[in-house]
From TrEMBL:
SUPFAM superfamilies: P-loop containing nucleoside triphosphate hydrolases. It comes from Citrus sinensis. SMART domains: ClpB_D2-small (SM01086). Residues 1-64 form the Clp ATPase C-terminal domain. Keywords: ATP-binding, Nucleotide-binding. GO terms for molecular function: ATP binding. This is Clp ATPase C-terminal domain-containing protein.
């Protein structure tokens, strides 16, 4: 859900950052941590967007300035 489908969330965020000439990379460990957070919150794939937003929001604002 984070990396494989055509419209995977990870790919969406990579495209967003690339619009500002920033390369975003998720390590395997980071992907596991994100998945574990979603599992712990009992949200499954539905909660992934909120988790990614909470992690990347500050970086998105920094990139735009």
């Amino acid at each position: 859900v984070l990396t494989e489908p055509k419209n995977a969330l990870g790919k969406q965020y990579k495209r967003l950052f690339s619009m500002n000439n920033v390369k975003l990379h998720f390590t395997e460990k980071a992907l596991r941590v994100i998945a574990k957070k979603a599992t712990a919150k009992n949200t499954g794939a539905r909660g992934l967007r909120a988790i990614l937003e909470s992690i990347l929001t500050e970086a998105m604002y920094e990139v735009r300035t």
